[in-house]
Each structure stands twice: as C-alpha cells, then as structure tokens.
Amino acid sequence: MGISRIGLVVLLVGSLALASVPVGGATSATPQIEGVDSDAVVMRVGIQPNGTATWSLSYRVRLDDQNATDAFESLAADIEANETAFTDPFGDGMTRTAASAENATGREMAIRDVSIETTRESLPKEYGVVTYRFTWTGFAAVDGETLRAGDAIGGLFLDSETTLVLTWPDTYRLSGPASPEPTQQKATAVTWTGPLEFGSDEPSVTMAPATETTSGSATTSVGGGDGGGISTTALLGGLVALLVGVAGVGWYLRGSGDGGAVPSPDAESGAADEETTDDEPAEPPSELLSNEERVLKLLEDRGGRMKQQEVAAALDWTDAKTSQVISGLREDDELETFRLGRENVVTLPEEDPR
Fold this sequence. Notes:
By secondary structure, the chain is α+β, with helices and mostly antiparallel strands.
C-alpha cells in the first residue's frame, strides 16, 4: 500500500491552513471534520528546566467496527513503511511555527526529533491512536530558576474534542496561578479541555523549584497571570497545520471504510503486504481521558458496579457534574443505574444489578 490519504491531508490541507488564517483571529486547534464525533486530540507538553519542551500530539479514534479497525491497521502499515512521508511535512510546519514564535518572543527556538507512531488503547473500549512527538527548544522562558510557559502558543483555541496538558518536573511547583483557570490541576500538571479560547497572553504558567512557599500553590486554580502572548498569522496558522494534519487521521479512518486509499508510486511496491503487530493495548494517563471514559474505566476497575456518590468522590467531582456525565452515558446505553435504598447505583451494562 502506498502513502495513504492522511499524507496528502498533512501536506496539502496543512499548507492551505498556513496561508488562510486571519491576523489576530482566534483559531480552532482542530477544525470540525464530518464523521469524527467521538474522536479526541490531546496535546501534551512536558516543560524542562532549560526551557525545552517535549511535545506529543495524539489523535484517538474509536475502533468500533471492522471497517474502522481495518482502516487503522492500514494507516499503521503506511506509517511503518514510510514514516518520513508523515514526519517531514509535519516537521516543516512546526519549524515555521517555531520561527514565528521566536520572532515574537525574542527567544531562540528550534524543532527537532520529530517522530510518529501508532498504538492501540483500551479505555475500556478499543481505540486506535496516532501520535506525533517532537522537541521544541526555547519553548519556555528561563529567568534564573523560574520558568514561564505559554507565550509561544498564545491565543490558541481548543474545540470540544481537544485537550492541552502542560507538565513540569516534580522538583518544580507553580509559583503563581495558571491562566486561564485550568480544567484540572495537579502538583506537576495543568489541563485545559475545550471548548476554550485562550487570550492573546494565554495560556500562562509560571514555575519555580519547589519550596515551602511554592509547594502549596499547586492545588489552587484561578484566572489571571501574565505573559506576552502572540497571535500572528504564521504562528496560529502553523498550529492549525499541525493539528489539521493529525485530525486528518480521523478523516482517513472514517472515510476509508471500503479499504481504499490513494497510492503513491514511490511506495507502492511491497507495502501492501505489510502487517502491523498487535501489541497489548496501552494504559493512557487519566488526564488524557474524557469525562465519560474516566467513569467507564473507574467502573471497570471497581468490578463494574459503584454507588454514584463513590464515583463522585473517586473522581473528585461535584454531584452535579457526576450526575450530568452519568446521565449522558445512560442515554447512550453505556451504563445502567438503579436505586438501592436511598442510593443511586451505577453499573456497566453486562453487570447484574440485583
């Protein structure tokens, strides 16, 4: 099999995105693509003490039927057969993005070590995952031992299927509130889940080596903060190119149920017989799961049956949020509920509620 349609999406659609973003306009990180309602994009940025950030950008699609599974395996074979067909255009787009951020911030930046891989996860449902990884030097500003991150991607827009996670070493803590208020905050990570439009100086996160003063701030999430954000055409356009390319994976998987793909003459011979190895599904970090997936995984880990109040306590959610998520899952026939005395009990469909 030759280079599939996703390669064309990365190269062509991404290039068009670079040329079409209005100056100063808010830009969607993952434009809506018909037929990929249940997919999700996760951007994970690991900030190092020297200001370098290790990025991963993962696109997940549910393997809910044989067509989707076959398409994912076909894509995995294409990537294995010709990885540079995917990483080269992606790396070029990110290099342009970093160059724009460098001009805006005054920090020297570079993109290196671009790679791509495919995996499968069980959440507990089966998902196919395509992940780009790369290193962005100069991503965060370094002032002595203090790190300030976010200005390189100021003004980004996260749609409802996109999550941004910023992490830092466990020897660091927030030295001030993250801005805007994170969806979730831990000692060494903040998470924002869309839909969310960052201001021109957001996201903004400031970290310093852990001390008695800074260690307590890691559990507080409030708005505000500083940072010199940028929203230039090339920078936001580059991020769109980056994310549209990965979103194109969903278009490929959902749009190729007949098994067809666009072959490339230079990769046509021999690649059609490539087969991927079924590795054991990986266990993703909890912050990469949707609210619904977290509930389902919690139930699976606890034997398939829990009181609703126990779910709220385990996930550190309010009663209202827990009820809303569980109601949606019940409507989708993903779980069942019943009353036991004065308690609401939640079960997976295959569990006997008696």
